[in-house]
Write a structure and sequence with these properties.
Blueprint: E1 2-10, E2 21-32, E3 35-43, E4 49-59, E5 62-68, E6 86-95, E7 98-108, E8 114-123, E9 131-132, E10 149-157, E11 160-174, E12 177-189, E13 195-203, E14 211-220, E15 223-231, E16 235-242, E17 249-253, E18 268-275, E19 278-284, H1 286-289, E20 293-299
Antiparallel strand pairs: 1-20, 2-3, 3-4, 4-5, 6-7, 7-8, 8-9, 10-11, 11-12, 12-13, 14-15, 15-16, 16-17, 18-19, 19-20
Length: 301
């Protein structure tokens, strides 16, 4: 089995006030037939990230844009809060008649350029503005995550809420500038709100990597599968598998660049989902989603 790229779905430039640039971190929240409701992160004229809904159609021949919501469903927070510079999508879970939207809050720093924190907002449906559960982050600093948390993937698995998320390891000064290091850790919850973190690392650095981000986890009859972005020189999408969701084995690169203009320099931020009996991947290309998001499909060799 291998992934084949089906191309760019749309260019986000100047679409709406909340999406002047970028369509980052796409997440296929709801699949009905060949129509997919995608949460993605746009940037406004001041570069602030917000989460909105984009409807697309997908199929073996590619994808097409159907509509873009005029307003975001998760907006930036008040000045000084953990998401006053960005509220970017990561994962949404339908439970108990509500959507639980796990997102990454962004705030700017002085000694380091940014801070990330996992946040949570809830909504009745995907067309309604989401209400944040707190002005504080869902995963604040603690002894196992002293630097940052971001990009959670959450699933309810046999009654347990399970989360695989990005965790900061350190900052270094390289060529006179702060450089971030983060990998992937694991947490569990009884209710999706209060999480137990033990510091368990699920995907660690390999060779020259220093940034591992945006896990996408799927469970099927063959076990657990994870796609994630990792960065040495540039971001690429990799794949790992597990029998239990705790211990993971890296398999290798999931996608290879096809030298298309929109993803020739990097491929990052995957989300894998099933639609119409096929398995698809939404992902970003160059400049962390500035060129939009595209589609790939898993095919037999």
């Amino acid at each position: 089995m291998r992934w084949t790229t089906l191309g760019l779905i749309f260019d986000p430039t100047g679409r709406t006030p909340w999406m002047q640039t970028h369509a980052a971190l796409p997440f296929a929240a709801e699949v009905k037939g060949d129509r997919v409701r995608v949460l993605c992160g746009g940037r406004d004229s001041e570069g602030r990230g917000q989460t909105g809904v984009v409807d697309v159609r997908v199929g073996p021949s590619g994808g097409e844009l159907l509509s873009i919501a005029p307003e975001p469903i998760i907006s930036i927070g008040p000045l000084g809060t953990f998401d006053d510079r960005g509220a970017l999508p990561s994962c949404s879970v339908a439970h108990g008649g509500q959507w639980y939207h796990y997102y990454t809050g962004v705030m700017l720093g002085q000694t380091v350029p940014f801070y990330y924190f996992v946040g949570l907002a809830r909504s009745a449906d995907l067309d309604a503005p989401a209400t944040k559960v707190s002005l504080a982050p869902l995963l604040p600093f603690n002894s196992v995550d002293p630097y940052l948390t971001a990009s959670p993937f959450v699933m309810i698995d046999e009654g347990r809420w399970r989360m695989w998320y990005m965790s900061g390891v350190k900052w270094d000064v390289v060529d006179g500038k702060p450089k971030h290091y983060y990998h992937l850790k694991y947490a569990e919850s009884d209710d999706g709100v209060s999480w137990t973190r033990t510091g368990r690392v699920v995907i660690d650095f390999d060779r020259d990597e220093y940034a591992i981000s945006r896990p996408s986890v799927l469970r099927d009859k063959n076990g657990y599968h994870m796609w994630f972005a990792s960065r040495g020189d540039v971001y690429r999408i990799n794949y790992a598998r597990s029998s239990d969701g705790y211990d993971w084995t890296r398999v290798g690169r999931a996608l290879t660049s096809d030298s298309s203009a929109w993803d020739s320099e990097m491929q990052c931020y995957p989300h894998v989902f099933d639609c119409g009996g096929r398995r698809y991947m939404l992902y970003n290309g160059n400049a962390y989603g500035k060129t939009g998001f595209g589609l790939a499909m898993l095919v037999e060799d």
